[in-house]
Design goal:
By secondary structure, the protein is mainly beta. The protein contains five helices and 36 strands. The chain is 9% helix and 46% strand. A hairpin with a 2-residue loop joins strand 23 and strand 24.
């Protein structure tokens, strides 16, 4: 009887592996629309899905090690975290999928019953010599049910991801990806059998203007856009090698018919988009300039040329809209953007935008920062030693260019980058393990080191103090159980 039981158990386990049985208990998502909180985590009805840690994957051994600690994790945050303290792992961290989810090109969202996430590429490609080679900087997009069941590979890119967003148009959702020089779209749905139709839009693409993915917890986020994806390609003429310049093209996301708009003799590159305002640099003999073109009410062939205004005399990047809360909703009151790691503010005038530098202060100047996210008129910054909240209303009003920041939290060795998420109350980011207090542990534990970056969260509305710290470790770390 015992022998029969063992055989049956083995058969059942093998059957579960073949069918891809659930790894964790299923949860119900009553929200019918897209859920996106940023590129490090996504919150579904109080359940947080996230990469348990951040992995740098450049080899097969990196990938194998990354799977051990950088997997897709889930944590129920509806109740208080059950742990020994802020520097210890929660007891209820679950493993949803053993793919590497925390990485340089991490991207995740939830739609209906499914969670979508990217992992470093494991597929072999032929190199220039025709030899099989792994390109771990390429990305694979997966989808699984919220319990980890029915995992499916949707696509693997043939280049490094430069832009990836999820857009809603005419009642459908599309993932739009520029990887290498290939522009691709994937139609996804939230039904019990969601679509995952992959279609190539264009090749030899040099830049793209895609609206940012909608975040319902951010005042400056919107679903409004005209349905067109704009992109650039280089001019070419097989009969004339001296032909050079840039062509601006567009494609309606619900179709695959690209349309050439107009050509330029100089170099043009899209650097951002907010709803239907596109930003691009244009270089010629006079230098490089950044322009903004508002296409909200103009879909004509020459709309970009006819509506462009000088945005900045140079190259602007990481452009975010600033919205002011009004009685009837939110109103655009300008943009913030970065130039050489300095944040600037731009306000529209008749023929051009006026710009000014923004300086951030606590008890001293905040420098060498990353802009994590922008919510309304609030900018969230991080350095390797702190996360800060800054209300730039005084800059918008033209009163000052110096803003006093509030400290959200101070920590050692915060990840130096912009991989983070925001749910309206908490900001999620990676940092190395913080030293344990010698008052609560022995000396050996307090000096423990770990070069891995783990996920933390900090409540942006709480007052920071040295005693309270205002952060919590969310990752499962064996040494911090």
């Amino acid at each position: 009887m015992k022998k029969f039981t063992k055989i049956m158990c083995a058969v059942l386990c093998f059957g579960f592996l073949l069918t891809g049985c659930a790894t964790v208990k299923n949860i119900k998502n009553d929200y019918e629309e897209l859920i996106y909180n940023g590129n490090s985590a996504v919150m579904v009805d109080g359940n947080l899905y996230y990469g348990n840690s951040f992995a740098t994957v450049e080899s097969e051994s990196d990938y194998k090690e990354g799977r051990k600690v950088s997997y897709l994790a889930r944590l129920n945050l509806n109740n208080s975290i059950d742990s020994e303290g802020i520097d210890y792992s929660p007891e209820d961290v679950e493993t949803v999928s053993k793919e590497v989810v925390g990485h340089n090109h991490t991207f995740m969202f939830v739609l209906g019953k499914y969670v979508y996430y990217t992992t470093p590429n494991k597929q072999e490609f032929a190199n220039d010599e025709g030899e099989p080679t792994h390109y771990y900087n390429y990305s694979t997009l997966y989808r699984s049910k919220l319990n980890g069941d029915s995992k499916k590979k949707i696509l693997t890119t043939d280049g490094e991801v430069k832009n990836i967003e999820v857009l809603k148009y005419d009642g459908k959702y599309y993932v739009v990806i520029l990887a290498g020089q290939t522009l691709t779209k994937v139609c996804v749905g939230n039904s019990s059998k969601p679509q995952a139709k992959v279609e190539e839009i264009a090749t030899d693409v040099t830049s793209v203007a895609i609206p940012e993915t909608f975040q319902k917890d951010k005042a400056s986020s919107s679903l409004d856009w005209n349905g067109y994806v704009y992109y650039t390609t280089n001019k070419s003429d097989p009969d004339n090698a001296d032909v050079s310049g840039t062509i601006i093209n567009r494609v309606l996301v619900s179709k695959n018919d690209s349309e050439e708009l107009e050509g330029y003799t100089g170099s043009i590159s899209f650097v951002g988009r907010q709803e239907d305002v596109v930003f691009f640099t244009q270089s010629a003999s006079g230098g490089t300039f950044t322009y903004a073109a508002d296409l909200t009410d103009d879909n004509s062939q020459y709309a970009i040329r006819n509506n462009k205004k000088l945005f900045y005399e140079g190259t602007a990047g990481e452009i975010s809209e600033i919205k002011t809360q009004m009685s009837e909703g939110c109103e655009n009151s300008g943009y913030v953007f970065t130039v050489d790691s300095i944040l600037m503010y731009a306000k529209e005038k008749e023929s051009a935008y006026t710009t000014r530098n923004i300086s951030f202060m606590t008890s001293e100047a905040v420098t060498d920062y990353n802009v994590l996210t922008v919510d309304g008129r609030t900018v969230y910054l991080s350095t390797t030693s702190g996360v800060f909240r800054a209300d730039i209303s005084s800059v918008v009003a033209g009163i000052t260019s110096t803003v006093n920041c509030k400290i959200v939290t101070e920590m050692a060795e915060i990840y130096d980058g912009t991989i983070c998420s925001f749910d309206g109350e908490n900001i999620y980011f990676f940092a190395k393990l913080q030293s344990l207090s010698s008052e609560t542990t022995d000396t050996e534990d307090s000096e423990e080191t770990d070069d891995t970056y783990y996920l933390y969260r900090a409540n942006v509305n709480k007052e920071y103090s040295y005693e309270s710290k205002n952060y919590e470790l969310l990752s499962m770390v064996d040494s911090r159980k």
